[in-house]
Amino acid sequence: MNIQELEKLSRKKTKLVIGLMSGTSLDGVDVVLVKIENSGTRTRINQIGFITYPFPLGVKKRVLDNSSVNSGNVTDICKLNFLIPLIYVDAIKSLCKKAKVPLNKIDLIGSHGQTIHHLPAKEIFYGYKFGSTLQIADPMVIAKLTGIPTIGDFRTGDVALGGEGAPLVPYFDYLLFHSKNKNRALLNIGGISNITVLNKNFDATKVLAFDTGPGNMMIDIAAKKFFNKEYDKNGLLASSGKIDEKLFYALIKKDNFVEKKIPKSTGREYYGKEFLSPLFKRFKKVPKVNWITTIATFTAYGVFRNYEKFVKGETEIEELFVSGGGYHNKFLMKSLQKYFGKNVEVKNVESLGISSDAKEAICFAVLANETLSGNPSNIPRVTGASKATILGKICLP
């Protein structure tokens, strides 16, 4: 493909686009195929197919090890940067086969990549003050092996302009879910929880969004430690325990992120094993199942506390739509409803006509289409960037 062909593709009103998302939970890669019509506020989507393609055994641990300051290895990171896109390509082929859509009919791929480290806070380093972020799974590898133009590495441009590089979903949320009748919030619970607030009277420039704190990440760590389970399926463990008040307030006291001013974003470098390790030692006598209950409750608390502190004064929400793996945790959902009370309806985002599990993958398909259409897709109020900008790197096959 040459630049002239790319320009022709950018003018195409209807495109078949694949979105790829593998997040902090590292359950595998979510792959979605959508038909996208138009761009900007005229964007319309139709989901054609979706799968979650598992990572080979051992890849999750290797990525986690290399996301840690104490165990990162430059050789492994170099290899993972090529291995993960190879997995993505297999996932794409598997989805196309399932959806009965030939690979050569796909117009575009949007890939989030795999975050290895995210350090958006500005620090002085050799006389320069800047933030940084690193997502591996080079989109050029995907483009060359599929023959499809691929857009990835969306966070870098925002961080370069002084932003947090996250969250990026709010622009997508505004395009597809803004209501003129009700104040809405969309909460995605992956490894980290992030919220988008859509005031019925505001346009895209005034959208408010940020990471609220842990999502499934700390629950997963505790489930692995105490029960050798990758996660708390359907919240069954959390539902069978009790909240340990002393541990709960120790979590609140230790967590500086929940109270941190916005804009803000976070990741495994804050809420990983290092966060919980001292508490594991300090609260040895807490029953194992109560750990899961308490952490899940704290996760819901983090979302509500952020709402009270940073959102409610400007926008009192009427509806909270939840997506991501956390939606399947019934205890977590009940905890959210308890915190938000009867005046806020807590619902599955699927009631808006979009798959809960596929939402973030769809987001990166849409962001890729926005990039190709020449539309900025960060929101400076959300990320703290100095200006709105076109995101992502366009890789030609």
Describe this structure in words.
The strands form three sheets. Strands 3-2-1-4-7-13 form a six-stranded mixed sheet. It folds into two domains: 3-168 and 357-395, ATPase, nucleotide binding domain (Nucleotidyltransferase, domain 5), CATH 3.30.420.40; 178-352, Nucleotidyltransferase, domain 5 (2-Layer Sandwich). It has helices spanning 3-10, 59-66, 74-99, 139-146, 155-160, 169-177, 217-227, 236-240, 245-254, 268-271, 273-282, 288-311, 330-340, 359-372, 380-383, and strands at 14-21, 29-37, 44-53, 108-111, 114-125, 128-136, 150-152, 184-189, 192-198, 208-214, 319-323, 345-348, 393-395. The radius of gyration is 20 Å and the shape is globular. α12 runs parallel beside α13. By secondary structure, the chain is an alpha/beta fold.
